[in-house]
Amino acid sequence: MSNSTFPPLGSLQSQATVLGPGIAGLFLQGIETGLVIAQFCRWFSTERNDRDGAALSAFVIFLTVVGL
To answer: For residue 37, which of 2, 49, 58, 59 sits 20 to 30 Å off, Cα-Cα?
Structure first.
């Protein structure tokens, strides 16, 4: 019996299996954030009719903030 504080060699995980999903998730989240910002900029830059009320503007801004 050894009193070693290191885990057995068979139970170690490689760095790729630990870091890979996090890096992939960060990359995908960046793409999704870019899409949200692009859609908001497209909505903001278009000419809006008088029919589009303050409620729609508030809704779009609220969804953009929640999406980010």
So the answer is: 49
Q: What is the pLDDT of residues 3-41, one digit of tens each?
A: 667 766 666 667 777 788 889 999 999 999 999 999 899
Determine how many CB atoms are found less than 10 A away from the CB of residue 64: 16
Closest C-alpha among 60, 30, 62 to residue 44: 60
- Cα–Cα dist 4/11, whole Å: 14
pTM, two decimals, is: 0.63
Q: What is the mean pLDDT of residues 38-64?
A: 83
Give which of 16, 62, 9 is closest to 36, Cα–Cα: 62
